[in-house]
Amino acid sequence: MSIDLCTQYLGLKLRNPLVVAASPLSSELHMLQRLEQAGAAAAVMSSLFEEQIEDEQSKVFDLAPAGTRNYSTSGASLSALDNYNSGLDGYLRHIEAARKAVSIPIIGSLNGCQRGPWIRFARLIQDAGADALELNIFFVPTDPEMTATKVEQHYLDVVGAVRDEITIPLAVKIGPYFNALANMARRLIAAGANGLVLFNRFLQPDIDLNRVEVMPRLTLSTREELRVPLRWIAILRPQLTISLAATSGIHQGEDVAKVLLAGADVAMIASTLIQHGPEHLSRMRSDLERIFQEKGWHSVEQIKGMVSHQHVQSRGALERANYVQSVTSFKADRA
Prior knowledge:
Layout: E1 7-9, E2 12-14, E3 18-20, H1 29-38, E4 42-44, E5 48-49, H2 50-63, H3 87-101, E6 106-112, H4 121-127, E7 132-137, H5 148-165, E8 170-174, H6 181-191, E9 195-198, E10 206-208, E11 213-215, H7 227-236, E12 243-247, H8 253-262, E13 266-269, H9 271-276, H10 280-295, H11 300-303, H12 316-319, H13 323-334
Helix pairs in contact: 5-6, 7-8, 8-10
């Protein structure tokens, strides 16, 4: 039986739903080529950060002669950072080079949380040849005077500002911590999002007992983390017509099958590729094809959303996760 794994994401026709998520994996051309050979259908570039952009702009401002200082985001005027992405100009050159080195779509990535001059860099990413842009909003509201309404408007303002800068498709990567996520999803679309990436992994700090200070600690995702995006994609799919990408906890071919059944257009993958290498994508694709063969499915479009909110037999399984049944079942198993 012939299996068609093609899918659409942000208006881009992809040969399969396996997309490399924003990560260091996409920082080197030879790695991108290996990922493409292993089966990647598209790749999101490692992120440019708001802090990185504004730091470079401030250096240009400080060094400019009096009377000539400005906040221009011209890539040629920004010096390279030593420790990340070869600096802003290097990031643009990397996108240009990636477009020539591989045939798969290249998606730029911006990570920030405030409106500001850094947003204008979205236009430069577009001009460098990116097929789309992913906006990763990492914002932790700590001000007790900031209401949930203000937090949501903050997100919408940033999305709207980025949308005004570009004409290419825009995906917005968010976390799950909204009071009314379904409503927020619709408002993000109204602000200019062409797709949603669910969900951002808000990395949590740790405390070093020896040094008695807060320290960053990066941990790779586990398969258990898939359940949150799985639930919300299944809930949102019947309500939205835009693209949906699942990310966090996708490690095996069966995980990809699950997010497709929930209604995702693509599965974004990083942690398992960092652990096992780019060639793991080939195994994931083979496993996905095997599942399709065993189930008698012939295309991604056939199964997309098959277990979404409108099709699942028990909606409580998505909304309250059949809470009572789950808890009583656990107790019975422990008896």
